[in-house]
From TrEMBL:
It comes from the Eukaryota. It is found in: Nucleus. InterPro entries: PAS, PAS-like_dom_sf, Period_circadian_regulator. Pfam families: PAS_11. One of its GO terms (cellular component) is nucleus. One of its GO terms (biological process) is entrainment of circadian clock by photoperiod. This is Period circadian protein. Keywords: Biological rhythms, Nucleus, Phosphoprotein, Repeat. GO terms for molecular function: transcription cis-regulatory region binding; transcription corepressor binding. Residues 121-169 form the PAS domain.
Amino acid sequence: IGRSFIDFLHPKDRNAFASQIMSGLGVNKDTNPTQPVNKPVQIIFTRIRTYCGLTSCFGVKNNNVSFMPFKVQLAFKDITNAEGQSFYLVIQATPISSAFAHPNEYLSKPTPFHTRHLAVGKIKYMDPDSVMYLGYLPQDLIGKDILQLYHPEDLPYLYQLYETLVRDKCTLRSRPYRLLIQNGEYVRLETEFSSFINPWSRKLEFVTGKHTIVEGPSNPDVFASPHGIKYPKYNEDQRAKFQNFRDNIVRVLNKVTTKSGKTTNPPTLKRSMELNVYQAPSNADPAPVLRLEVQQPADSSFFERDSEMLGGISPHHENECMSGSETPLS
């Protein structure tokens, strides 16, 4: 009683907890400060120190302080008591347990979780549903390189998958591969990858993954300390090869994609060519206009004779042709 709640949090989670409180304390300018303010419930994941008593933690310097992960709900409320009206922060903490009970466990109905990372591999979003499967809190992975979590021996396959994702611009479902979790072990999971490409720059903005756990880790406690894990030893050439695959994945994700389909529709191109041909004489010098003035002779007999010789029909014969057409044949 009387101690600050932040003192019981893990040092890595104190900044995230403090920023969450500051965002909840923000009051809009249009809000009347004299009226009761009940902020919506905010959720944050944090590690809280376990109880230390005189019997279990008498020699604090010689014992390691342990923390447990919790799902914390924060709510700000105005409560009126005998001393008057006060502004309180109500905290409801629920412990989180590992999703696995046995080593290398196969889950029948695992809950899918989502991630989002940029073209450089930096994680921008981590689904809170992943905490019980991976052991990481969301703030632990934000800004980290997701390529470092892939098993080194699975990088050649993941490179081909990313290359197909960028080239075909489609949703791909991977085969099972390994991902590093908080306790230093690996889980096997399948991922449905999709990407968003900026239509103006034609560059990939981010990759979204919908992950489903297939097989659990050797140590079912995903929140355990990673100390004592024996990793396979790779020589310098192997480590350089793995890093080369990571660099190639980043290079593929940052490559400018080409436009799909034909850039010009053939009918449109044909109409454009016809229009250019039709308008071509307008660009040339205008041809001289020839005018010919013909004076009609006084004697119209010459005009009629010339018309008959040229195969024309004289206007004076029009009535004769019409009357002749109405005469029945004998």
